Structure formats: C-alpha cells, structure tokens
From TrEMBL:
UniProt key word Ligase: no
Transmembrane domains' residue ranges: 12-29, 35-54, 74-95, 107-127, 134-157, 231-255, 276-301
Gene3D superfamilies reported in the protein's UniProt record: 1.20.1530.20
Top-level taxon: Bacteria
UniProt source species: Streptantibioticus silvisoli
GO CC annotations, alphabetized: plasma membrane
Keywords linked to the UniProt accession: Membrane, Transmembrane, Transmembrane helix
Keyword Membrane carried by entry: yes
Protein name per UniProt: Bile acid:sodium symporter family protein
UniProt cross-references to Pfam families, sorted A to Z: SBF_like
C-alpha cells in the first residue's frame, strides 16, 4: 500500500486512517442478516489466511541463530508478557470511575498481546540501534504470543467477563493451526512469499480491514457503542498515555542498569514497549465474537499513540547517535559497553 506523505511533526500511520474509515463504513452501513453471515464467514477465512502467512514468513532458522543474544530477548519477553499484564491488572482500580468495565477489558487484552515487529525494526533502525536484535526479539514475541496470549487472556480476562473458555479452542483452530501449517511449509514457500511480499502485504492489511469491519458491524447491530462516551474515550487515551510512558521509562532504565550497550538498549525500548495491531485484531475477533468491536478500541488507540511517540524518540536518539559519532569517531560494535545515554 503506497504510503501517504505526512508532516514530519505528525507521524500518523496512513493505515490507521484506513482503519478509521473502515470503522466509519461499519457505522454507516453495518452488515446485517445474510450479509452479516457472509462477511463473518469471509472474515474467518481471512484470519486463517493471515496467520498462515505469518507462519510462512517467520524463519525458524534465523530465530534459532538469534538465541545467542538471549538476555536481550528475555528482557523484551518479560516486558511484553509480565510487566504489561501487571500494569493492566493495576488499572483495575480505575473501574468504574475512569474506565468502563468493557474498556478495561479491552485495555487488559491489549496488555497480553505480543510485541509488534515492523515498527520496532523501523524505529530501531532510525535510532541507530541493533536492528538484527529487534528482528529476532519481534519474532520471538510473536511466536511466544501465539501460545501465551490466549493463555493469559483466559487467566486474566475470564473474571472481567470478556473471555470464553471456548475461545482457546477457537484460537487453536483458527489461528494456531494455520500458523503451524505456514511454519511447516516455510521451507518450500518462504522464498515465494519473500519475492511477493508487497502483494501479500496487501492481503494482510485487507484481511485486517475485513476483520475490523465485521467486528464493528456486529457492535453497531448490538448497540454496544452507546456504552462509550467522549469523556470515557479521553480518559482511556490518558490511561494509555501513562501506560506507554511507564513502559518506555522502565525498559530504558532497566536496560541501562543491566549493562546493555546503547544499540541493544534501543532495541529493548522499542520492542518491549509496543503491542501488535496485526496479531491483536484477528485474535480479538476469535476470542470476543460480537463484543470484539469494543475490545479492540483500546488497541487501535494505543497503536497510533505508540507510533507517534516512538517516531519522535527515534529521531531524537538518531541525532544523539550522530552527534556522538562525530565527537568520538566510529560507533562501537553491537553489544559493546554503554555509550551515549538514551534520554526519552
């Protein structure tokens, strides 16, 4: 999908604009009756195809090679699947005064998702960080999230009324099996997918748009949007801003105290503070069914927020790296001791 030029001071992801337009379409023309049945079936097929392609793209060989940097990857995993959920549980005290129970469930679901890959790599590259580590960290997070996200969702969301135990079986059938099939066939079709990654990227994004349209259409038909007011949405944005700030700060401080070099610290901060929209939207559709529209709202807002904030930080760290390189000569190799501080 051709990227739309945006002002440098407003790093809005064009795909988010397309997602918002899809939400608007669902609000104006929601699928009903036989149309809803057909759209739902198409959405299920699209989700299976999406995760099949995810599995076929992930190189198991490259993932195994990256295990040598296990301390970095363990730090990212702990941030993604331990620190995030703990902060999500702490936010339970905001219900019902700040967040509605439904929005809180969506926020907690956001906290158990894996890290994103593409944007983490992009920001790590801009900030002159360890790109290869970011690739492996994002890959491990996605692989682990295929199993751990449904388990965490079952354990944490069951009490919130937003998760059905049958959702675990649906995850295995609609997501995990296609993903495993893609992994098994990656040896034979991986090169083809790499050669046609632009076309298949459109398939990925088109599938997610279909999932979003289906989820928000069901929400409109069921009338769940009457439960959300503008004030509640502003409150949700505030809570998510605090959540992102805490993760960026904690990952930065922890990586420095653990003795990681500057390039590794960049990768840890960007990989450990993000959540995957591409994985989260299809999973929500499977887990929450007709309630998915409201559950993915916190994820969509957080996704855009993380892109805007991290774009600013990446540019700032890039300037710091350039200034340090000018003052000290060639940059230190990956994994070397601390150099310039990361001041988020």
């Amino acid at each position: 999908m051709r990227r739309i030029a945006m002002p440098s001071w407003l790093p809005v992801d064009p795909y988010i604009l397309v997602l918002v337009s899809t939400v608007g379409l669902a609000a104006l023309l929601p699928a009903r009756g036989p149309a809803a049945t057909g759209v739902g079936a198409a959405s299920s097929i699209a989700i299976g195809l999406l995760f099949f392609l995810y599995g076929a793209r992930l190189s198991t060989r490259e993932a195994v090679k990256g295990l040598a940097h296990w301390r970095l990857h363990l730090t990212v995993v702990l941030s993604t699947f331990l620190l995030f959920p703990l902060l999500g549980l702490a936010a339970r005290g905001l219900v019902p005064w700040v967040l509605t129970p439904q929005l809180y469930t969506g926020l907690l679901y956001l906290c158990v998702l894996p890290s994103t890959i593409q944007s983490s790599i992009a920001f790590t590259s801009i900030a002159k960080g360890n790109v290869s580590a970011a690739i492996c960290a994002g890959t491990y997070s996605s692989l682990i999230g295929m199993v751990l996200t449904p388990l965490l969702a079952g354990a944490l969301l069951h009490s919130s009324g937003g998760f059905s135990a049958g959702g675990l079986l649906d995850i295995c059938r609609q997501l995990l099996l296609p993903f495993v099939a893609g992994q098994l066939l990656q040896r034979w079709i991986g090169a083809f997918i790499t050669r046609h990654k632009k076309v298949l990227g459109l398939v990925d994004r088109g599938s997610i748009l279909l999932v979003v349209y289906t989820a928000f259409s069901e929400g409109m038909v069921r009338g769940i949007w009457h439960q959300v007011t503008a004030v509640r949405l502003l409150a949700l944005l505030g809570v998510e801003a605090v959540l992102l700030a805490v993760l960026l700060t904690v990952t930065s401080i922890a990586a420095r105290r653990m003795g990681f070099g500057r390039q590794d610290r960049v990768a840890i901060v960007f990989c450990g503070s993000k959540k995957s929209l591409a994985n989260g939207l299809p999973m929500a559709s499977v887990l929450f069914g007709g309630q998915a529209g409201l559950m993915i709202l916190p994820l969509m807002l957080f996704h855009q927020m993380q892109l805007m904030v991290c774009a600013v930080i990446a540019k700032r760290w890039s300037h710091q790296a350039a200034a340090q390189a000018t003052a000290d000569g060639p940059p230190a190799p990956v994994g070397a001791g601390p150099t310039a501080p990361l001041n988020a």
